[in-house]
Amino acid sequence: MPAKIATALAVAASLVLTPVAAHATATAASATAKPNLRACYDGTCKLTLTKSVSFRVSSRFGITRLAIAFNSSTVKVRGTGAYVSSQAVLGRGSSGSVNGIGVRIVSLSGSKAVLRLSPVR
User: Fold this and answer.
1) How does residue 35 score in pLDDT terms, banded at 50, 70 and 90?
2) Most CB contacts within 10 A, which of 49, 93, 109, 120?
3) Three-state secondary structure of the chain
4) How far is CA 7 from CA 11, 15, 92, in A?
5) d(CA 97, CA 50)
């Protein structure tokens, strides 16, 4: 095959494949940015957070909402309900609980926190 044709085919292939790769990267990034908070309603989930979140949890824990904020060294987990408030401040690599919802820090940086929640009762 002549060099010009091979070069033209290589350029065409790269132009066709580039948008697909860019779309796959954008889709993966949006999946990381928007965790499935509804999956945490029963107190069992793994969260990858890029910003603070607040979501509903089952009233069986004595609270109805869990709020999570983080920075590069700590994660603050606050549970609230009718006339109730409870919180835990956790350092990198530690675990704790808020009203029967266990929280374990899987990894933590200034821009991302990965947490595992599980019932402890």
Assistant:
1) confident
2) 49
3) CCHHHHHHHHHHHHHHHHHHHHHHHHHHHHHHHCCCHHHHCCCCEEEEECCCEEEECCHHHCCCEEEEEECCCEEEEEEEECCEEEEEEEECCCEEEECCEEEEEEEECCCCEEEEEEECC
4) 6, 12, 51
5) 21
What would the two tokens of residue 104 be?
């374990």
Query: What's the rounded Cα separation, in Å, for the pair 36 and 25?
Result: 19
In the chain, the amino acid numbered 102 is G
Q: Which residues pair with 76 in a beta bridge?
A: 69, 89
Residue 6 tokens, joined: 């091979």
Whether the Cβ atoms of residue 63 and residue 77 lie closer than 8 Å to each other: no
